[in-house]
TrEMBL record, chains A, B:
Single biological process term from Gene Ontology: terpenoid biosynthetic process
Name the record gives this protein: Polyprenyl synthetase
Lineage: Bacteria, Pseudomonadati, Pseudomonadota, Alphaproteobacteria, Acetobacterales
Domain of life: Bacteria
Pfam families in alphabetical order: polyprenyl_synt (PF00348)
Any GO molecular function: prenyltransferase activity
Amino acid sequence: MSAAMAEAVGISPAALKQSLSDAAARIEATLDAVLVVPGGSEAILFEAMRYAVLGGGKRLRGYLVLQTASLFGVSEEAALRVAASVEMLHAYSLVHDDLPAMDDDDLRRGQPSTHRRFDEATAILAGDALQTMAFELLVDPALHEDASIRAELALALARASGAHGMVGGQVIDMQGEGKSLALDAVRRLHALKTGALIRYAAEAGAILGRADPDARARIAAYGRDIGTAFQVADDVLDATASDAELGKTAGKDLAAGKSTYVSLLGIEGAGAEAQRLCVQAQDHLKPFGHSADYLKALAQFVVERRN
Amino acid sequence: MSAAMAEAVGISPAALKQSLSDAAARIEATLDAVLVVPGGSEAILFEAMRYAVLGGGKRLRGYLVLQTASLFGVSEEAALRVAASVEMLHAYSLVHDDLPAMDDDDLRRGQPSTHRRFDEATAILAGDALQTMAFELLVDPALHEDASIRAELALALARASGAHGMVGGQVIDMQGEGKSLALDAVRRLHALKTGALIRYAAEAGAILGRADPDARARIAAYGRDIGTAFQVADDVLDATASDAELGKTAGKDLAAGKSTYVSLLGIEGAGAEAQRLCVQAQDHLKPFGHSADYLKALAQFVVERRN
C-alpha cells in the first residue's frame, strides 16, 4: 500500500527518501556553519550543542519548513535558517527529555544521550543554549529584511514550544503517567507535546513567504494533521517495533502505564486513524497541485515509517 | 559614605529603596497578570513558573529597564513588559542553576528552591518555559507597534543570555572550579555570566526608546560597569556576609576553590574596584543630568548592598 499511495501523489518512496536526505544534508550544513566552536573553555558547551543537534535524525521539522517555504518562493538561505532553528528547538527538547530527572534515557538514535556523552550540567546548559539560539536565528536581521516576519516567526515558535505548547504537553504527559486518560485528553496532550511544533514547522514556510490567509490556513491544517498522524504512528511503533528499529527503547509507553492511541484504539484502530489523518492532510494541499507532491508523500511516509 | 555618595546624586538611600520597591511591585503585578494558571493538568507547570519568578528578589534587572526606558519617554506598559521578560529570563537561569546537577542549592532567597518545592523534572521544564516566555513577551505585537524594535530586543536578549553570553559564562565558571584563573579570565567569565544580562537590561530601555547612538552607547557602558561592579560586590559579599544576610549559603566560592575578585584582589582591593566602577558608571550618565539620578544612585546601591 505504501508504494501505491505514494505514487498516487506522483512521488515514489525512493524519491521522497532522496529528497529527505538531501534536505537533511543541507540543514546539517547550515547547523554546522552556525554552531562554530569558540576557543575559550566554553568550547565544551558548543561541542555538546553540536553533539545534540548534529547527531542525525529525520529532520522532519526542518524538511517541513523547506517544503512549505518552496510553495511561496522563499529564498533557500532563509528557509534553511528557519529549518536549522526548529531543529535546534527540537534538539533542546530531546536533550532535556533524556535527563535522569525526566525520561532517564541513556540512548538517543542509538548513541549515548547528551548527558551520558558529556555530563548532566553540560546537557542542561546545552539544551538551554540551543533554545536561545533557535530564537536568535529567527530574529537576526540576516534572516530576512522584514522585521515583522522575523518577529512573527519567533512569536509562533514561542507559542508552539513553551508552556502553552510543547512544554505544557510534556507536563500533561508526566502528570498522566499511571493514569487512564480518555481519547480527547490524549489528543490534547499530543497536540501540545509534539503537534504544535510540527504545525509550526509547516506554517513557518507560509509566514516566511507571506502566504495569503487561505493558503496559510491550509498549510496549518496540513501541519496539524500530520503532527497528529506522526504521534499516532509513534504510538503504534512503540508497541510494535524493536529497540534496534527505533534506535531507542521500545515499549516504554506500556511500561510507564501511559494511555496512548494504541491503548485506546488498539493497534489496528490506531493504524486506521493514522491513515485517515494522512488522507485528510493531503486533501488540505489540493489547491497547490503538483508543487505540494513532496508534502503529500511526506504525510504517507510519516504514518508508514518504521523508526 | 553610602548616604553621602547617594545624596551627592540627589537621591537619598531611602528614596532609592522606595523607588526600587515601587518598581518591584509593578513588575510583579505584570508577571502576575502574564502568568495565568490554566485549568488543565499543566497547571503545575505554571505554578512552578510563578513560584520561580514571583518569589521576590531585588528586581535589579527589571528596574534597569524601567529607569533607562524613562530616559527616552517609553510608555510604562511597554517598559514593564520588557522588565517582566528579563526577570523571567533571570528566574529561568536561577532555577536551572539550583538543580542538583548544577549548584545543588536547596534554598533561594531563604525559600526552598524550585526543584525542592516541586520536583526536578517540573523545575527543568518551568525553567525552559520561562525562557520561552521571556522571548514571547518581547516579540508579541502587544509590546510595541514597531516590529523592528521587538526583533531587536529579542536579538539582544538572545545574545546576552545564550551560549555567547550568560550560559557560556556559566560553563566557563564550571570549567574553572578548582583551577586558578587570572584576573582577565575572571573578568571575562563575569562579563558573560552576569554582566551581559545586566547590560542588556540597561540597553533594553534605550532600544525601546529608539535612543540615538551616543545615548545608547552611554547606557550600554553604564550597564557594563554596574554589571561588573555588581559581581565584584557579590564576591565581597560571599566572603564577608552571613547566610542569613544573603538568604543563601555564603562562602561558596571559597569552598568551591573558585578564583574570584576577592581571591585575586583581596577584600579591600575588591571593594576599591567596586567603588571605582561605580563612579565610572555614574560618569557615563552625566549628559542625562538629574533624570538619571536614580540610575546613578543605583550604581552606589549595587556596590554597597548587604544581600
